[in-house]
User: What shape does this take?
Amino acid sequence: MEIYRAGIPSLISGNIKLISGPGCPVCVTSENYVDMAISYLNEGYNILTFGDMFRVPGSKGSLETEGSGKVKIIYSPDEALEFAEENCDKKIILLAVGFETTAPLFASILKEIRNRKITNLYLLCSLKLIPPAIEYLLSSGEVKIDGFLLPGHVSAIIGTKQFQKICRQYKIPGVVSGFEPQDILESIFMLLLILEKKEEYLKIQYARVVKEEGNPLALKEIEDVFEMTDADWRGIGSLKNSGLKIRKEFQDYDIQVVHPIRVKSQPINPQCKCGEVLKGIISPRDCPLFGKLCSPQTPQGPCMVSSEGACAAIYKYGRE
Assistant: This one.
């Protein structure tokens, strides 16, 4: 979103092509997860969610169309605790969607639920890990990648060792970048220098925030509460050890354990090419629905719904 908002493609050489990948947590949330949340609504639960998930389509509709006043948009996971304590007569599910950046927040919420002895608040977990997705992109060979602008916010949590290992294994350089326009431009320049000199595989541009070891306190929060599991990525499929699930010690607050539900999701509009966009195979403009049937007012896929989605970015700022 920042790349297109700042007009960065118009500032760099035409030889450089910036490809959006699966870096938007809402965009890669599976249809099945949305359908499951809707099924819990039908079972009498209330749903708490961040705003981006509200309009994401599943095969049974979206939280917006199916919520019937039982979906509340929150701006911080902490709001879930207050809402649960004020509504003891309601069964409440907090949608835990995000990458390594939000996982420590949800871990701390689970600890607080246990500490406060709250009995009516549960998590529906869809937390994902970025390194396995990067490995998938490289191993699939579906798109040619010369280098990565790696996410500074994720690296602030997990550090750079996992990215260093991937870059060395596949001999693809990467630069851990911040999100201001000057950060992105500097990161592109640094990446070009690495490609030219071929001397190293990873550098940190976002050094004011990112350390090689990451954030030990945040990593401990994640380790205390979650463990790795296979996860479904929209448009990609199941990736091994690419998600987080709630550990047994906290399963009293895992809605999929407390009240398991099976849903059978149907394919959404087959013309929607969010999967190809997320894998970097096509540009949003190459999707036959883009700007026609699919717009922020009538989104057909999550890449147009999310404020971080590639389709929404190009639609809003009108340039590539």
Notes: The chain has three domains: 2-22+130-204, 31-129+218-258, 274-317. The radius of gyration is 20 Å.
